[in-house]
Amino acid sequence: MATAISFENVVKRYHDIYAVNDVSCEIEAGSIVALLGPNGAGKTTAISIMLGLTKPTSGRVRAFGEDPMRRAARRHYGVMLQQVGLPQKVRVGELVDWFRSFYDAPLSTDALLDMADLRDLARKEAVKLSGGQQRRLQFAMAMAGNPRILFLDEPTTGMDISSRRGFWDYLRKFAKERDRTIILTTHHLDEAETIADRVLVMQKGRVIADGSVDALKRQAGNRYVSFWAGEVVTEDMIAGLPHVNEVRWSGRHVRITTDSPDDVLRAVILANLDVSGFEVSQGQLEDAFVSLTARDEEEDGTVFDGRRPR
Ligand SMILES: Nc1ncnc2c1ncn2[C@@H]1O[C@H](COP(=O)(O)OP(=O)(O)OP(=O)(O)O)[C@@H](O)[C@H]1O
């Protein structure tokens, strides 16, 4: 598999702040990678370095083997950034055409309008679109040059649920059928969970976890046992079970966070508690994210899934 983006010991320092602190990783062509992390983690700086907009203090960055500060690398890029002003009085179709004119081999206007679900709005003034429709227009503009890598910064902000779903369905198909690479940031971890092949979690400029959604959930170590508790079951009875790290009650529904679901189940059965509807799960990516970033805060350690320890 070809490498789309590579970072070798990349550092970006602003005075005494390491926005990116010795990051090394490779992003395979054709993969969908979500870059996650709390505010100030270094995501925007890392993307800006990939785009060739920010020069690293030290280290080496390549996009398909070329320096992203050079135009040769950037011709592979499609970019959808968070805040983009649209010109007044220009219609949607005209704007898409204008973007197409920057490229030697652009996608057709119809294809671009279709993929952004904007065919019916082609004659509308771009500034009069709703927030979600403007995001879709930015997507069509980002796709104009038929890019090999698409950078998406919080792409679904302002989109309604059905637009979001359509957008992600389309992107997944696009990446897989055409072997395109997608690098995205989002604060909607459920979206990252649905779409990403790989998740990079950044904190304080470093990559603290790197792997598939499942691998990250496993690394986070949290497992959940949940069930419905009968009226006679008390909070103390549940809290007193072995291997219980945390208990959440929602009415009579109980969710236990544990590192050993088997031991919890065994103890519940042995204690003959009045419970029903057992479920054991690994939780959501969000749970793993919270636990990995909190753990890093405590230990200052780095967690990998074993594929690329650096
Ligand atoms: N131009 C700059 N000058 C000085 N410090 C900067 C600059 N850009 C970023 N930083 C600092 O670098 C760190 C990383 O910032 P960055 O914007 O990359 O984080 P982020 O993960 O994208 O955060 P958010 O989720 O809030 O957008 C922060 O401490 C930020 O204050």
UniProtKB/TrEMBL annotation:
Gene3D superfamilies: P-loop containing nucleotide triphosphate hydrolases
Residue ranges occupied by any ABC transporter domain in the UniProt entry: 5-229
Pfam families for the chain: ABC_tran
Keywords linked to the UniProt accession: ATP-binding, Nucleotide-binding, Transport
UniProt superkingdom: Bacteria
TM helices/strands, residue ranges: none
Single GO MF annotation: ATP binding
Annotated PANTHER family: ABC TRANSPORTER ATP-BINDING PROTEIN
Protein name: ABC-2 type transport system ATP-binding protein
Organism of this sequence: Alicyclobacillus sacchari
